């Protein structure tokens, strides 16, 4: 067992003691996607992902089907307010010593905002300041929160960068989505903060 109490497994979910024995889910040790430190993501979605990886590698290793680490995607809802997180929060990223770039956006989840049942979405995305790779994101909002953090989780797993997200192609429908995807809006804000000091004329900011 690892210090955190899980069965030590390799990237294919094989136990280190005996490669013919696989471990997945709450009983398996997990490593953080970014830091490789122990990660205590005891959630069904993580267990199921590990189960799929184990299943794909049971009868021979498939090089591309391995566990790259726990991204940690969570969402919940209290009294109509949904909140979700994927990857590192701003606080965690700073604690780990990553120089970071943050982008934020607030926008209605339908367009125009006068549509019935419209809820405001708040989206915050954290990037590594040097590589512009996504480190994490947080959402506050309504019914779309769960799938938005799932999209952030996928972007993290795919090592997406701010330019990747800024050029993301998305669908838009007045009753189902905002007119601008919240990840694109928050990434645009991050890129503005990144480039504004370098090229003030691009963003229209006043010259210092
Ligand atoms: C209250 C609560 C709410 C949760 N909400 C969420 C949520 O919203 N989203 C989410 O993703 N996760 C949630 N989780 C976590 C999620 O339930 C677990 O992460 C997930 O069930 C882990 O799956 P598992 O297969 O590893 O273990 P388990 O689901 O615990 O399955 C282990 C199985 O092994 C059996 N077993 C144990 N010992 C033996 C034995 N000696 N011999 C044979 N069988 C044995 C058990 O009876 C059990 O059926 C929640 C957990 C709790 C407790």
From TrEMBL:
Record key words, sorted: FAD, Flavoprotein, Oxidoreductase, Redox-active center
Family annotation (Pfam families): Pyr_redox_dim (PF02852)
Protein family membership: Belongs to the class-III pyridine nucleotide-disulfide oxidoreductase family.
Organism: Acidithiobacillus ferrivorans
Name of this chain's protein: Pyridine nucleotide-disulfide oxidoreductase
Gene3D superfamilies on file: 3.30.390.30, FAD/NAD(P)-binding domain
Signal peptide: none
InterPro entries, A to Z: FAD-bd_OxRdtase, FAD/NAD-bd_sf, FAD/NAD-linked_Rdtase_dimer_sf, Pyr_nucl-diS_OxRdtase_dimer
GO molecular function, one term: oxidoreductase activity
Cofactors required: FAD
Residues of the Pyridine nucleotide-disulphide oxidoreductase dimerisation domain: 82-179
